[in-house]
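ugh ok so i messed up the first submission bc i forgot one of the chains. this is the corrected input, ALL of the components this time, i swear. 1035 residues overall. if the numbers dont match what u have on ur side tell me asap before i send this to the collaborators (the ones from the other lab, u know who)
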Amino acid sequence: MSYVPSTEAQRKEMLAAVGVSDYRELYADVPQQMLLTEPLDIPPGMGELEVSRAMNALANKNVQYTTILRGAGAYDHYIPAAVRSIPAKEEFLTAYTPYQAEMSQGVLQSIFEYQTMICELTGMDVSNASVYDGATAAAEAAAMCRDRKRSVTLVSAAAHPDVINTIRTYCYGTGDEMRVIPAKDGHTDLDALREMLGSDVSCVYIQQPNFYGLLEDATAIGEAVHEAGALYVIGANPISLGILKTPRECGADIAVGEGQPLGLPLGFGGPYLGFMAATTKLMRKLPGRIVGETVDTAGNRAYVLSLQAREQHIRREKASSNICSNEALCALTASVYMAVMGPQGLAEVARQCTAKAHYLAEKLTAIDGIDLVYPGAFFHEFVTTLPRQNEVLSALETAGILGGLPLDEGVLWCVTEKASRDDLDRAVSIVKEVLA
Amino acid sequence: MKIPADLSYSKTHEWVRIEGETAIIGITDYAQDALGDIVFINLPEVDDTLEAGDSFGDVESVKAVSDVMSPVAGTVSAINEELIDSPELMNSDPYGAWIIKLEGITVPDDLLDAAAYEAFCAESE
Amino acid sequence: MELIFEKSVAGRACDILGACDCDYVDLPQDVLRAQPPKLPELAEVDVTRHYTELCHHVHGVNCGFYPLGSCTMKYNPRIDEEIAALPGFQRIHPLAPQHAVTGCREVLDLARSYLCKISGMDNMTFQPAAGAHGEFTGVLLIKQYHDSRGDTARTKIIVPDSAHGTNPATAAMCGYEVVNIPSAPDGCVDLDALANALGDDTAGLMLTNPNTVGLFDQNILKITAMVHEAGGLCYYDGANLNAVMGVVRPGDMGFDCIHMNLHKTFATPHGGGGPGACAVGCKEFLSEFLPKSALMDEAGHLQVRSFAGNFLVVVRALTYLMSMGREGIPEAAHNAVLNANYLMRRIQGTFEPAFDRICMHEFVLDLSEFKKETGVSALDVAKSLIDYGMHPPTMYFPMIVHEALMLEPTETESKETLDWAAGVFAELYELGKTNPAVMHEAPHHAQIGRPDEVRASRTPVLRWYPQEEGSAAL
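and heres the new structure output, hopefully the right one now
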């Protein structure tokens, strides 16, 4: 199958119209010794039914757990039916970047609405139309903060390891330095941070809630950062922002994060959604597409890709980012999710996650040998000690439960609104049984 | 196209007015016309030091961006912050809309006078 | 159209979760936000109708002809969507134990094997999320290679001036000085300019072939040999791979690493701007520098984003690759090239191609003569196409052609569609001669007329504000 609609007869007619007798003549510019003489060493094509069978077989090789108690950057939230069906509409699905505003008002308006929702969620002034994921959003934010005088990025050790590593990679690219702020009791070590805040520091990145699920004293950290003249970047979990202080309320200059919890499936890691929002002052440093409101020739409200002179297609090697394609459909999905949930619904997801995570933490730590590793308030993730870790986790798996993520210091558990109290009780009783 | 006789010019289409130790710099009528509607300018900071030929900022139109070079060396003593809110002044009044002032200047000898600049523009057409 | 916020009614909601079966807990007051976000309050019917209204003002490739040059807008098969929606792919946690994700690993392995064969590379990563992200990944391979050899004097990346803007922007993100070399008039590499730019400080060359005007660079073997001779590496921007897949391989052209846009060449949908997905391939000697995830794989490697990349997009691309197979892949390339040449010849005689010779998968029209004659610009023609329900071609790119319109019909358009499109261009050619004024004001039947982009940039309004907060301008 090749999805080519022209018939053999039509192809011949078209070749004749072009003035060649054969496909090979179309490739006359290619050095002939380079042309493949043998067919590609890949399997022959298949019909749709055969492909469906083969791909279903692959999907069926994966284990689908009935309960997922693992997060660490990818969260198993309930996805409302409308959030699945609306972004699947073929118009949204198969459009390119909205370069032609007159033919793309639907996409442009949806992005404008997304930008507004992200600003509401984070408390910031301006949002871009998305970047690849939370890790690249953090790395792009760090790049926004650098100038000739300040180039060092500080990153909390309590941030997600993939995020730290991604920021390190982007710094390796530009030749800038990244230093890791140590963690103390699972939190960003504020005293250590104060000592590290030299005049060469451009920005500080922390994650809230952090990798261990703990709530950082984000306001105090922000004060220290600003006193030292650096910029403050917070990586936030968007679900938690249904109830938690906004990055802006904590003093952030830039808010970023992984938007996957807003209606996107786990999908073995992607596609996800990097959101980025900043203060008005940093507006022109934001990378990527930004949609703005204007009027058309008749004076009617219209939306366009705006502030384009920031971008690579105009600024080329002087652009601060090379981003072109983003995650527009994921941003649309997140918008639909936020519209379906509304302010009350989003807060309710956050409250139920917190309630259930605390319920599981309480039940687990009532078992001998299981304790919380770190003190302090947490959102929907927490780290416990776990004796006979491998045995416990495989017993849970046998019962269709994906347990917490093993770390050096213990096991990182996550509970979302999807787990019922019965699910959690069942998990706890399996843990008890193994450890009895 | 206006080319005031009392200014000096660079081949990168900036004008400069020299008053003793101070230089006032902007972009020419030719430059603003080539760019089209200017929508934004990135300005340097006061106290930045510049060599002649250094880029000290850039001006943006909707679909283009262009560096602005300093025709003379010196230290930035003032920036025209009015242009941040009203970049269109560079279109409507290019010789009134100064961008930066420099002090402690060194003037290179390759600046053009109005007649030479006019000839240069005609050549570039 | 009203904004979704303007449709909000206080107190309206969808009931999604139901009651909580665990006791709520109180987090400390000082961590809570002062007031809830002003998200819209709507019933499900409001949400559905809002987005249905919006989607009526979007043109996707599955809606109609979309000859946007250099974007390879081919039809996006439905089976690919159905497969990517399988719970066995959707509900898989990236950090689930290895034995629970063998199906996902096999998808990546299979896709890698197909694409290595097509590109002539030895190894591949799917971590990058888009083409530009793949360029970043690929140039970082080059940087690590030189660094690993202590060859730190290589500070420059050579990019032809006809390249996409992402190429120089990528090189800059990787800390390289960009050396822009002028292209020959046909967009091909000027060998003298290349020779002059090469030296001990050359880290590499970034190149698209076929190039950005849709021509295959006949000197390609010479070019890559010259770069290698100077000690640099060659990076292949796979933006235009659709013309040559299954016909000739970048690996055989002498390239050391490559990116392929799965959302162009391998038919995954572009979603109004993304998500894309990118495969970055390399020859064996660069394999050790490929990125890995700190959490999924192992620490100590670079990584360009979290986890394993846009996996569900790779699932779609693999579904497409399996459907196409060894005959389908070159068949698609042949017909992409045939369709481009056919459309070019059908239009020729009215609007003229910039290069009167056989093209690859896309071609450029040069409207500068037409504009001189009629005053009608490439922009006017593009905007006029909208009234016919055709998405305009890429405008004013590449910059080496004036008044350029770049058309890439792709192989999934029928002869009937191409004949229709040629007819539309012919009509506009006549219209430009008889009534240019009407084209200056096009489109006439779109949802909006031409937008005021100057106003959008001068006084940015980048979000909606609730009425009570007053002015919307920043």
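quick check: The first helix of chain B runs from residue 29 to 35. that seems consistent at least. The helical segments of chain B are 29-35, 82-85, 89-92, 114-124.
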